[in-house]
Fold Guanylyl cyclase-activating protein 2.
Amino acid sequence: MGQTQQTGSCEEIDVKALQDMYKKFVLECPSGVLFLHEFKRFFGVDPTGEPSDYAESMFRAFDKNGDNTIDFLEFVAALNLVFRGDLEHKLRWSFKVYDKDGNGYVDRNELRSIIDSIYRIKKCSKKDMSETQLSVDEVVERILDAVDFDRDGHITLEEFIRGAQEDPWVLNMLRLDMNPAGWVLENRRKSAHF
């Protein structure tokens, strides 16, 4: 008893699993924090390339307090989003990644940069590229047509959420990998072997 906790989405959070994750986090990150350069290394990309921009945006979304590190509490917050967050919370997190400059909206260049980075990462990792029949620019245009309701060339948080909720294709393109913590640990282990 007391080892699992029910969440609103019927997922269970296992306290032992959380303790094991903490042990792994400390083992992989003895300083207790994860730095941007380590996070970028997980992606296995050139630190100055387009996928690096995506990694930086994702890192910034994880780094809640803005101290340029991800500590275990921030890591757990990401896990909480994965296990307990509803679609709207997950989309809010994705919006932070797309809004690279933090000005409250996503413009065409930010959208293109992230979509292009996702394409490059998927090509490098040989993940499913079922949407590759569309070019990056075609995807950007299709998303803007579907989501930019006031046609001002900017996607606000409200437009981002509404557009994703109303169109399954847009949702699939806008939401990011919803298991970022697992991805980080998996790629951390891979990078330790190189």
